[in-house]
Amino acid sequence: MNITRFSLAAAFASSVLLTGANGQTTATTAPVGFVTVGITAGTGSAKKNTLFSVPLMETEEITGQVAGIITGVTANTISNSNAGWTAGALSQPATPFLIQITSGAAEGRLFLVSSSAGTGGAIAGTANTDTTVTVSSIDAAQVNLSNLGIVAGTDTYKLFAADTLSSFFGSPTSSGVQGGTSAASADTIVAVTNGVPATYYYNTTSDRWVKVALGSPDASNVTLLPYFGIQYARLPNSALTFVVTGDVPTQQREVAVKNSGTTIVSQYWPVDTTLGTSGLSSVVTSGSSATTADTVILTANGVPSTYFYNGANWKKVALGSPNADNTVLAIGTSTQIVRKGSASGYSTLTQQVPYNL
User: Fold this and answer.
1) How many whole angstroms separate alpha carbon 268 and alpha carbon 142?
2) CB of 167 within 8 A of CB of 26?
3) Which residues lie below 8 Å from residue 240, measured CB to CB, with a gap of 6+?
4) In angstroms, rounded to a whole number, what is the distance separating the alpha carbons of residues 218 and 215?
5) Contact, 350 vs 281, CB < 8 A?
6) Cα-flanking dihedrals φ and ψ of residue 172, to 5°?
7) How far apart are CA 153 and CA 184, in angstroms?
8) What is the DSSP track for 252-296?
9) Which residues is 351 bridged to in the sheet?
10) Distance of alpha carbon 334 from alpha carbon 349, whole angstroms
11) How far apart are CA 290 and CA 277, in angstroms?
């Protein structure tokens, strides 16, 4: 994998003022930068997998307050009575938005704003009004917002833009992704949402991203959620690289991990971290071996490795179960968490910012 390491010092040195799109918001300064992340080459006849994620956050100019004070919350809505948003503008299928809680008990939670329609695989729901956003059904299935301890009139939010399959990966001519007339002849992407996997590829017959399902439905507007990762299976014997620009995350993050089955969690930060400092031990069941413990899977150069937590240290599933606390979670990668059993619901993975701001 071709990954250019990200320098926080350089990001701070080149930081710019990022403000709301109108005079209603207070100007804020955020460090910005870029990172180059890569997809491992296949062999030409066989695919190789990369556990991939999109680091950095995207601030977008909008009408109304990009950041502000939350004045109301329900099970699946967040309101700011002074927001001044354009109704429906934050809910366009091709240009999705995220809302992050930036203070209080729920600091670091990120939610996809529901779309006004299911066009191109977007998560359809209730469009935003001038004061209220509805979170997507995938997020509402994980948590009841009114149970998160958000304090109306005190806690704050910030809006970010999100990428889609189409906007990030483009087409074979624009980015070098391998398209095809079927999933077998193309690069494929697997996203796991609330434990349910879905596979996508660029269909050269319909000239768009599609889902592997009956009728090959349009998937151009499927959102790449920054709190989750994806599995990218590359067929050609050439690697891919993508340059990602945006804001450096400055809040802790909280992400829902399914209590049974698979969750692919992004390496959210634009720096390398390790298994030992990741906080992942708080959301897995430990055990004396991978047979009894939950496992996590990482990939490097297309090769997967499996790890488990024994209650004190991370161990690699290999001869002698070597200590793996210092195993690197690299920029632009993701971690596949496989939880055993049949427990319902979700656990919360909380991670502190791994750098000084």
Assistant:
1) 19
2) no
3) 38, 39, 175, 176, 177, 234
4) 9
5) no
6) -55, -35
7) 52
8) -EEEEEESSEEEEEE--SSS-EETTTS-GGGGS---SSTTTS-EE
9) 253
10) 14
11) 20
The whole-angstrom separation of Cα 352 and Cα 150 is: 19
Q: Each residue of 326-335: b (16+ CB within 10 Å) or e? A: ebebbbbbbb
Give kind and range of the element (H or E) at residue 156.
strand 156-161
For the chain, the C-alpha Rg in angstroms (whole number) is 20
Picking from 207, 224, 8, 279, the residue whose alpha carbon sits closest to that of residue 98 is 224
Which residue carries 């935003």 as its tokens? Answer: 128
Query: Cβ distance 111 to 139 under 8 Å?
Result: yes
Q: Residue 311 carries which side chain, given as an amino acid letter?
A: G
Q: Measured between alpha carbons, how far is 24 from 29 in angstroms, rounded to an integer?
A: 16
> For residue 83, which of 152, 146, 132 has the smallest C-alpha distance?
132
H helix or E strand, kind and range, residue 73: strand 72-73
Distance of CA 322 to the CA centre of its chain: 30
d(CA 269, CA 200): 25
* Residues 354, 357: Cα–Cα separation, whole Å: 9
**66, 84, 108, 213, 214 from 104: Cα distances, Å:** 18, 23, 9, 41, 44
Beta bridge pairs of residue 300: 303
In tens digits, the chain (357 residues) has pLDDT values of: 333 334 444 444 333 333 333 333 333 456 888 999 999 999 999 999 999 999 899 998 999 999 999 999 999 999 999 999 999 999 999 999 999 999 999 999 999 999 999 999 999 999 999 999 999 999 999 999 999 999 999 999 999 999 999 999 999 999 999 999 999 999 999 999 999 999 999 999 999 999 999 999 999 999 999 999 999 999 999 999 999 999 999 999 999 999 999 999 999 999 999 999 999 999 999 999 999 999 999 999 999 999 999 999 999 999 999 999 999 999 999 999 999 989 999 999 999 999 987
Burial of 152 (0-12, 13-18, 19+ CB in 10 A): middle
Phi, psi of 208 (to 5 degrees): -165, 165
Contact 300, 332 (CB under 8 A): no
